[in-house]
Amino acid sequence: MWCASCLASACAGCACNLCTSAASVVTRRSARLAYCGLFAASLILSFLLRQFAAPLLHHIPWINAFEHTPPDEWFQMNAVLRVSLGNFLFFAIFAIMMIGIKDQNDRRDAWHHGGWIAKIAVWAVLIVLMFCVPNIVITIYEVLSKFGSGLFLLVQVVMLLDFTNNWNDSWVEKDEQKWEIALLVVTVVCYLSTFAFSGVLFMWFNPSGHECGLNVFFIVMTLILAFAFAIVALHPQVNGSIMPASVISVYCAYLCYTSLSSEPDDYECNGLHMHSKQVSLSALILGMLTTVLSVVYSAVRAGSSTTFLSPPSSPRSGAKNPLLGDEETGKGDAKESEPRPVSYSYTFFHLIFALASMYSAMLLTGWTSATSEKSELMDVGWTTVWVRICTEWVTAALYIWTLIAPLLFPDRDFS
To answer: At residue 103, what are phi and psi to the nearest 5 degrees?
Structure first.
């Protein structure tokens, strides 16, 4: 128990000190950024424990409860999953607490925006306690995390589609020639990038002298999807635009690259190691920062989205909100008899962070697919390959659905 307390308390203490110093200046408008900071702290803690905690976990009897001690990679994954579970419980509890909030006169509205010293303390205690639970709890959470991560990837796709459509609509509504030219430039650049990127993938992941039919299939499918997006979007009966199609094409090419780059280093068709240096700690840190930005953007954008998050009673439901710019004001600005509606769903906001906790754990553990990979590699393995390539295909299917759904169901409002 002493080792568990020292391990979790020492790492969580650093994050607590940083967060506590800023807790007193958190306002209603910056509350969402504060939640992002807490989530980022959990990712940093997970990363540090993944790198350095294995020797300490060896000495905790309820964790190393095996006749034959597992390899270090197992303890690394176990540490990440325990931090993730604590973070998940923190946001899941808040998601449940915030169910049904409609206006800012609800006492729980203050719980969502304030009390940061208490929140940080609860967050730290939950993470420490997760190092006291038996391994069976972590095993169950590991299985559930794979499903939760899939839901989070689906949310990311929805956010991307929402972003591209809003981007296109905002420039089209300006009805000026310079913005039309800008749309054309973005479209051309995106399609050129897609085809150039695909050519590079052919060079890296289809080396001469090897039969790499699976990699070729993935790359060719990406190109076919890019053409399909353009054809469907430009169809006379489809109310589509070519610019979103080009952006989705680039994103699909990127997902194809991340999928192929996650193939094991010893796989003969993975030629990436011949074009890049061996993975280093600095590269891992850079990859971690990218993950933090991606996850935090998805969660914050979800909290601001009007597509399916704003309550019907919200004055901003159906409006185009900036990422973090909704003008949330205090209760004193409105008459007691006229409560001000909340501008987004607090429950869904916390739920997105809970799912993101699961997703980040899967990234750091390579989707817990194998413990035989090199310990310094992150997000590598065949499970990761298929998760990413399926995400690409789901993205393509959802985008095409957004184009053809109004034709199939003309009586429904898809705006």
So the answer is: -140, 170
**67-104 per-position pLDDT tens digit:** 787 888 888 888 999 999 999 999 999 999 999 888 88
Tokens 């909704």 found at: 326
pLDDT at 244 over 60: yes
Q: Cβ of 407: how many Cβ atoms within 10 Å? A: 11
| The pLDDT of residue 300 | 64
Structure tokens at 129: 């306690």
pLDDT, average across residues 360-384: 64
Ordered DSSP codes for 221-244: HHHHHHHHHHHHHT-TTS---HHH
Q: How open is the CA angle 137-263-214, to the nearest 5 degrees?
A: 120
> Residue 290 corresponds to which tokens in the numbers above?
């990218």
d(CA 50, CA 81) in angstroms, rounded, equals 10
The full DSSP string for 304-340 is H-SSS-S-TT-TTTTS---SS------GGGS-TTSPP
Helix axes 135-174, 382-408, angle to 10 degrees: 40
Residue 241: what residue type? S
Q: How far apart are CA 275 and CA 77, in angstroms?
A: 29
